[in-house]
Hints:
The protein is α+β, with helices and mostly antiparallel strands.
Amino acid sequence: MSKGNIKTWFVLLALLALTLILVWQAPELEQTDIVEASKVTAERDQDPNTVIVAEPTPAASVLALNPRQYGKDTVDLFSSPTKPKLAPAPEVKKPIEITPQQRVEVPFRYVGMFRSGPATTLFVMEGPKLFLVQEGDVVSQHFRLQRIDIVKNQLVWLHLPSNETHKMSMDQ
């Protein structure tokens, strides 16, 4: 051990010994009187330099609990064994059940296609009616042709009232 470590340990042992001696010789604790705080209301007429001194009371009177004074709006939860009155629960409205409508089928039948440069025009029939349709056109006020997928050989229709997407094969 170095000389610095020996000095540090010696100081720590001396402080520990001093603490033990002081604790051993400390006087016993004395029982002091309990002072009960009281609510004092100061009037405005009194001198502001007046000192209020609390007087000690015997310990037995401190342990005796005095009932609290309650106003009309307060409730003492622990005073009586009766059940507290509960307000009636508000009625919960049942959610409106929306029944799923039957899925609308695309009423069109693919007849053919005509390409003129980048524009593609489709021939579709609804019953005896023939329609010439391009992407984005609305047919029969309910269906819009969203996309022509030539690779998958499909037409993608959007049913406007229900906002549902329908795929139709061009092989029909």
